[in-house]
């Protein structure tokens, strides 16, 4: 009896102690066996898939325009240089969206995030600046119709290209050079790692360029209406024909400017009023239409052009349709 008391000093029943001892042995044995934890599943945001798909379409569409202009020596006029600049900028924007998707899910790091965002900012900035340069070129081609095809115009075009790409590259380098919010998340904008100040500068710059484009297109409308009226008087056209031609030209300009505003204005205004605390779905919902502008640009500025249509037909089927070779340019083709 004394031996039992000495062996069971805790005062607990022996059956309970035996059960606890068995549990301890089982726990010790299980602790020696490595536990394989299930790997976390890679959750892909559907919005990122849509943006990547949009980037793929942008890249393919604008690559066609770049190749046509690059391989066709006859397309070296200032207008085609600016259209090529727009297509190249949109091509880089599409590539940036694809790279952003790949790095976000396969190679996550601060360096890749900064490089990707810098590429997207630079390419989209170059795209918007190229649209402004095309508007300036169209205005000059109508306002200075007699002296437009001169060496001075070509030089001015190259100066515009150097300035717009230089400015865009500088804007894209700002996050890489330290103007980012990776160290202070409270300064982040709706697009991390861009700071709120950086996003504000980009948004205000866009609004300024949009206002300038609007003013230039108003002047272009006036010139088109005046030219159409003069042509109608010289050829003794009816007033109805003059009205139809003028309305077509004004409608074309309205579609160009309206499409540009509809694509970019939501994201621009949202970037000014929002920050990183806002739900990300609002950022995706306003950024996606901005990418659509790069899809629409080749249709408006490249594939509607008669010379590019001829070059595309030569590449695809080796011939030029008679409808293209006999088509005359009208005042509405602006």
Model description:
This protein has a single domain, classed as Rhopdopsin 7-helix transmembrane proteins (Up-down Bundle). The chain is mainly alpha-helical and 334 residues long. Helix 3 (46-71) packs antiparallel against helix 4 and helix 5 runs antiparallel to helix 6 (151-176). It is globular, with a radius of gyration of 31 Å. The termini are far apart. It is built from eleven helices and no strands. This is G-protein coupled receptor 12. Belongs to the G-protein coupled receptor 1 family.
Count every helix, treating DSSP H or I runs of 4 or more residues as helices: 11
- Total DSSP E strands: 0
CATH topology: Rhopdopsin 7-helix transmembrane proteins
Q: Extract low-pLDDT stretches.
A: 1-13, 25-41, 328-332
The biggest sheet amounts to:
none
CATH secondary-structure class: Mainly Alpha
Arithmetic mean pLDDT? 81
- Classification by helices and strands: mainly alpha
Tell me the number of structural domains.
1
Order of helices and strands: HHHHHHHHHHH
C-alpha Rg (nearest Å): 31 Å
* CATH H level, superfamily name: Rhodopsin 7-helix transmembrane proteins
Question: What descriptors fit this protein?
Answer:
334 residues, mainly alpha, Rhopdopsin 7-helix transmembrane proteins, disordered N terminus, disordered C terminus, GPR_3/6/12_orphan, lipoprotein, GPCR_Rhodpsn
């Amino acid at each position: 009896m004394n031996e039992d008391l000495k062996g069971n000093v805790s005062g607990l029943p022996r059956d309970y102690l035996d059960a606890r001892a068995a549990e301890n042995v089982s726990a010790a044995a299980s602790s020696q066996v490595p536990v394989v934890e299930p790997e976390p599943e890679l959750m892909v945001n559907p919005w990122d898939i849509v943006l990547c798909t949009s980037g793929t379409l942008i890249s393919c569409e604008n690559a066609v325009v770049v190749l046509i202009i690059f391989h066709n020596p006859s397309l070296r006029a200032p207008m085609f240089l600016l259209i090529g600049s727009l297509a190249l900028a949109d091509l880089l924007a599409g590539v940036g969206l694809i790279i952003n998707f790949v790095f976000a899910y396969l190679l996550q790091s601060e360096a890749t995030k900064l490089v990707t965002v810098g590429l997207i900012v630079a390419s989209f900035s170059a795209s918007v600046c190229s649209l402004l340069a095309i508007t300036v070129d169209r205005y000059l081609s109508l306002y200075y119709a007699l002296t437009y095809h001169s060496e001075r115009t070509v030089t001015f075009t190259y100066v515009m290209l150097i300035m717009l790409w230089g400015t865009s590259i500088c804007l894209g380098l700002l996050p890489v050079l330290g103007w980012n919010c990776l160290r202070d998340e409270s300064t982040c904008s709706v697009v991390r790692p861009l700071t709120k100040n950086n996003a504000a500068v980009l948004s205000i710059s866009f609004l300024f360029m949009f206002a300038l484009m609007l003013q230039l297109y108003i002047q272009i409308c006036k010139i088109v209406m005046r030219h159409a009226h003069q042509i109608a008087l010289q050829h003794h056209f009816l007033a109805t024909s003059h009205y139809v031609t003028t309305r077509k030209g004004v409608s074309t300009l309205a579609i160009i400017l309206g499409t540009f505003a509809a694509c970019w204005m939501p994201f621009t205004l949202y970037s000014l009023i929002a920050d990183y605390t806002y739900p990300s779905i609002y950022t995706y919902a306003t950024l996606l239409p901005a990418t659509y502008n790069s899809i629409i640009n080749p249709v408006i500025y490249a594939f509607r052009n008669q010379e590019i249509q001829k070059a595309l037909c030569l590449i695809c089927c080796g011939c030029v349709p008679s409808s293209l070779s006999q088509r005359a340019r009208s005042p509405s083709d602006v």
